[in-house]
Amino acid sequence: MAEATHESVISPRARNALVRLLRVAYPHPRFPDGPYERTADAVINQVEASLWHRLALTRGLESLDDAAGGDFAALDDEAALSLLRGIEDAGFFAFIRGVAVVSLYDDHETWELLGYEGASYEQGGYLDRGFNDLDWLPSPRIEEYAGPDQLVEVATDDEIAATEGSHR
To answer: Is the separation of the CB atoms in 40 and 115 below 8 Å?
Structure first.
């Protein structure tokens, strides 16, 4: 049912170009198509109620196809990225980015792929839930504080008081 609605808003070809645009703009080689396709659907859902946004999206995706010599979705990553850099200030691209950055990274499959366990508040916070289980980060360098002989006095109390008095 939802697919029919999307097809009435933009063509299947335009949707493919949008999915490709998202893959190039937010590159995650390990990601399957699902998060990108759901993000494309979120963009499309945002334009359903606005003729202006719908036309901007449609014309923008058509302009990508034109710039690509006919099929933006068929370009290799480097060529596609080069085209996107050329339109990074275009209104339709800013609109896509505004929806995509939230939608793609709020997708639960994306969370799983990135190792994000979701919100912690409802579960009592991170501290008692594996706060230090990020095994993909390097071990932190830990240095002990050796004592007051390492302190450097920047200003005396009298100098600070005199400075504060001059600002009043």
So the answer is: no
Helices (H), 26-90: 33-47, 51-67, 77-86
pLDDT at 6: 46
Look at the chain and count its residues: 168
Instruction: Provide the whole-model pTM.
Output: 0.70
Q: Alpha-carbon dihedral of residues 107, 5, 8, 52, nearest 10 degrees?
A: -60
- Section 36-65 average pLDDT: 93
Please tell me the distance from the alpha carbon of residue 74 to that of residue 58, in angstroms, as a whole number: 18
Instruction: Provide the token pair at 9.
Output: 């808003």
Encoded tokens for 76: 């290799």
Task: Tell me which of 151 and 107 has the higher pLDDT.
Answer: 107
